[in-house]
Amino acid sequence: MAFSEEDGTAEEKETNNKKRTKSTLATAWLTFYNIAMTAGWLVLAMAMMRFYIQRGTHRGLYRSIARTLKFFQTFALVEVGHCAIGIVKTSVIVTGVQVCSRIFMVWFITNSIRQQVLIGELERSSRIYNLFIVLYPVGVIGELLTIYAALPFVRRSGMYSMRLPNKYNVSFDYYYCLIIVMLSYIPLFPQLYFHMLRQRRRVLHGEVIVEKDN
């Protein structure tokens, strides 16, 4: 079958048009997603400030914002999907660790222990590339302090723990699990922080950085 140069050019144009269309759709979706998430966290921040102004106490604060907080934080799992399908050029593993750590904080700390309120999340979606140098460590410190504050309650209540003997013949202590989670920040935080620094350098200076999943 004869294949002309014109046919090849037409196919290349069609392929390029499809790539441009996908790129445009991806950009539009990411713009919408980032605006929506930033707006969501701003709504949470304003709700918290209004609560404090009206009542002058943090008691009952979590209950008033719990549904919105859990929705926006859980919806952040979409970011892992962005990396997996390639519309965001960064590591799936790094993004997964960052997102899942915050979901863990919301569902297994603040949702289970109503006395604790996770505030460190509010700066995340509005973080810009220079402020994150300070705000990222502040967020991590907030997470660690929240877990630390939850430890006495977890130990007293035995929450999520399984004691022997039981029908599954399995022992699990949530208290020590949380301590292990806190210790895991020691090796993980430097990796995540320097990853963010590399991302900042790529955006600000146009450097090409190849991210690895291992």
Task: Give a verbal description of the structure.
By secondary structure, the protein is an all-alpha fold. It has a domain at 129-163 and 171-206. The chain has six helices and no strands. Helix 1 (5-55) packs antiparallel against helix 2 (61-75) and helix 2 (61-75) packs antiparallel against helix 4 (92-110). It starts with a helix and ends in a 9-residue tail after the last helix.
H/E element sequence: HHHHHH
Approximate shape: globular
Tally the beta strands.
0
Low-confidence stretches: 208-214
Strand percentage lies at under 5%
What labels would you give this structure?
214 residues, mainly alpha, 6 helices, 71% helix, transmembrane, EC 4.2.1.134
List the helices and strands and how they pair.
Blueprint: H1 5-55, H2 61-75, H3 78-85, H4 92-110, H5 132-157, H6 174-205
Summarize this structure briefly.
It catalyses: (3R)-hydroxyhexadecanoyl-CoA = (2E)-hexadecenoyl-CoA + H2O; a very-long-chain (3R)-3-hydroxyacyl-CoA = a very-long-chain (2E)-enoyl-CoA + H2O. This protein is mainly α and 214 residues long. The protein has helices at 5-55, 61-75, 78-85, 92-110, 132-157, 174-205.
